[in-house]
Amino acid sequence: MIRFDYARPADVSEAVRAGSGEHAAFLAGGTNLVDLMKENVARPLQVVDINRLPLTDIEAREDGGLRLGALVTNAATAYDPRVQQRYPLLASAILAGASPQLRNAATNGGNLNQRTRCYYFYDVDTPCNKRNPGEGCGAIGGVNRIHAILGASDQCIATHPSDMCVALAALEAHVQVTGPDGDRAIAFSDYHRLPGDEPWRDNTLRSGELVTAIDLPAENFSTHYTYLKLRDRLSYAFALVSVAVTLRLSEDGRIEVARIALGGVAHKPWRVPAAESLLQGEQPGERVFQAAAHAITEGAVGQGQNSFKIELARRAVVRALGQAAAGTPQSQTDKRIA
Ligand SMILES: Cc1cc2nc3c(=O)[nH]c(=O)nc-3n(C[C@H](O)[C@H](O)[C@H](O)COP(=O)(O)OP(=O)(O)OC[C@H]3O[C@@H](n4cnc5c(N)ncnc54)[C@H](O)[C@@H]3O)c2cc1C
Ligand code: SF4
User: Fold this and answer.
1) Is there a contact between 108 and 126 (Cβ–Cβ < 8 Å)?
2) Looking at residue 22, what is its pLDDT?
3) For labeling, which of 21, 149, 212, 309 is most exposed (least CB within 10 Å)?
């Protein structure tokens, strides 16, 4: 039994104060943190239960967007009528993840901050630089079917496991945080980071900072979008590769704006602006889709067992672009799909 202190603050500033210690962790739905504590992977000395904080609303924003409270559950977010109608890409991505029971407990803030599913990270008897800096990486040269093909380093090849975050990257959301130095907004593309030589840092949150909300911009791409998730089972499995696509088409059918975010391939949702600009001004079609698919995976490197992901990602991008352009997105919003 590892002892820890437990606090359940009622306001945000108290939570930030309690969460500012080096060995503190915020507890939201607990679907990831509690597992990590049980497995002895996370050993916080101070657990700050944030479930009493007033971060449980979804609110309209003055600029026409939507603000999602950090403690709104993934299920409540995905089934909110405003999210379903205006941000179906996000609803679709959330419902492609985990299971109904988990989504009822998991929160938006927790989803952003969930840790990698790398097997070695969870197995304290194997080396892992993310868990114990300087220890080595068990996945390099090990079992690495689920690992990164893009943006990895020689210290860590883990991927970020979230589905929701892939959609948020394509929608260009902002993450609202508050901490010991006040409030700030982080562009979604700057929120998660690549492992580099500090693989233990998943994101750019500073010590003691708490995610309070996620802001969705007014442009929602509700007619031309797709979230396509490829995995070993149809339900209750993390993505091997996933793709979020949003398109804005002109009256004559040309692509005005294209965004493509890949999941399951890197330490953060993967976007390449140069790949997206190849589509701008073009009529949708196989030739330009193939060009974008190759550009977004440029520099991809396999580790052996995961090398299949390179071709899989390219094919997934082409398929997702085709679906989004046709306005027939792969939808996970059907409630019968678990
Ligand atoms: C079996 C299983 C299958 C899953 N499958 C999928 C899947 O297919 N796709 C997918 O996307 N996810 C999947 N998940 C992951 C699940 O979505 C996450 O566990 C969940 O979103 C985490 O949210 P939580 O509120 O429970 O976070 P917690 O477990 O409470 O916290 C997770 C981390 O976030 C930090 N944190 C929480 N809230 C905040 C905040 N407001 N500010 C700063 N830090 C915070 C915590 O300190 C902790 O480090 C799966 C999980 C399980 C157990
Ligand atoms: S890939 Fe990253 S998380 Fe996995 S063992 Fe290597 S260092 Fe650890």
Assistant:
1) no
2) 87
3) 21
Backbone phi and psi for residue 268, each to the nearest 5 degrees, phi listed first: -150, 160
Give the predicted TM-score (pTM) of the model: 0.97
| CA separation for the pair 204, 156 (Å, rounded) | 17
* CB half-sphere exposure, 204, CA atoms < 13 A: 16
- The ligand 2 site (C-beta within 6 Å) comprises 116, 118, 120-121, 128-130, 137-139, 156-158, 199
State whether residue 276 is helix, strand or coil: helix
Ligand 1 in contact with 37 (CB < 6 A)? Answer: no
What pLDDT, in 10s, does the model give residues 64-83? 999 999 999 999 999 999 99
* Cβ-proximal residues to 337 (8 Å cutoff; 6+ apart), any chain: 95, 234, 235
Phi, psi of 216 (to 5 degrees): -100, 135
The radius of gyration of the chain from alpha carbons, rounded to an integer in Å, stands at: 19
* Adjacent-strand bridge partners of 223: none
What's the CA gap between 236 and 121, in Å, rounded? 20
- Report CA torsion sign: 114, 179, 183, 189: negative
List, in sequence order, every residue forming a beta bridge with 210; answer none if it has no partner.
Answer: 178
Top mutation candidate among 116, 124, 126, 128 for ligand 2, by most atoms within 8 Å of CB: 128
